[in-house]
Amino acid sequence: ILQGTMAQTAATFTKTFTPTGMGTHTAGVACVDVARNTGTSTAIVSVTTSELTVDTIPPATIADLRASSSGVTSVVLQWTAPGDDGTTGTATWYDLRYGTSGAITEATYDGNTHYQTGFPKPAGSSEQATVTGLQPGTRYWFALRASDEVPAWSAVSNSPTAVPQTDVTPPAVITDLTVVAAGSNSVTLRWTAPGDDGMAGRAVWYDLRYSRRGAITDSNFDAAKHYEIAFPAPGGSIEQVTVSGLRAGTQYWFALRAADEVPLWSRESTSPFVVTLRSPTSGICVFCPLDLIDTVFGTDGLAGDILTALVFVAASGGIVLRRRLRKVG
Q1: Strand, helix or coil at 222?
Q2: Domain residues for 288?
Q3: In 3-state terms, what secondary structure has residue 103?
Q4: 263 and 186 in one domain?
């Protein structure tokens, strides 16, 4: 509201007001009230306005959208930032789309999947976005638009295509699966965790098997009994599990495989073996690896009041000789 006063010095007078604070997109209406102490008044209003300025120039069309690289489930896109008006200034928003049904055009743009990106940089800047969550081995097309603050949207960009890589690298083979302890009904195993790709990353699943019929190999792995264990730790971690529910005084072989998310399975591990203790009252053996020879200390129950001590001498992977050392009381 603009207000002003002027003392009447003549029958006719002129008063000028200049409004401020009106934006380039603002429409206005001028109204005049004239008041005087006595008598009647006639108001003649003349309003002069400059032409309203409306932003009709959208950002320039992005013409250099390209797929620079791809991962197993991702594609990296690069392009040059447009401006607010053509190639001048800084645009306000991006709208990135992708799909699997062919090149993306003005007609098909809205039917493709939106992917959130960062805000635009100043015109001429190098931009990059990594689209994740894609399916390996599937061909995708991409397209991009930019808008200013109105918003006035650019036309759809060129539509490059890319195929996320197919994972061809399984976890590394576990070569150090070792028996580290044994009781009458359980055996404890230890090994180094492989990765997702070789030793890099983190595998997704383990498949541990055991058998009483001999060493476990690729040809008989599936026939061996499966034992459920926890998910893998990151590559290089030391893992340990105790397999329970075994028979006393029985020889068992073990083997282990790992898989990634595809899943790609590693080959089977080494297949160590061990004989569980004969007596349910026997203690747990503790294995002390000494290069190729493992020495296993334990107990073999009670003989009267005499506790018998046993030592097991085992080649790497299993027991081959048991010898009584002495009796202690």
Answers
A1: helix
A2: 178-328
A3: coil
A4: yes
Number of domains in the chain: 2
Largest CA distance in the chain: 137
Distance between CA atoms of residues 270 and 250, nearest Å: 20
Neighbour tally for 58: CB within 10 Å: 22
20 CB-side CA count, 13 A: 0
pLDDT tens digits, one per residue of 106-163? 999 999 999 999 999 999 999 999 999 999 889 999 999 999 999 999 999 999 999 9
CA–CA dist 12, 18 (Å, integer): 20
- The last residue of one of the domains, among 130, 162, 194, is 162
Closest CA to 235 of 265, 207, 203: 203
Q: Say yes or no: 222 and 273 in one domain.
A: yes
> Do residues 185 and 324 share a domain?
yes
| 205-211: strand order across its sheet | 225-227, 205-211, 251-259, 273-275
The bridge status of strand 306-315 relative to strand 318-328 is antiparallel
- Of 162, 186, 207, the last residue of a domain is 162
Question: Is 295 found in the same domain as 230?
Answer: yes
Contacts of 226 (CB under 8 A, 6+ apart): 207, 208, 209
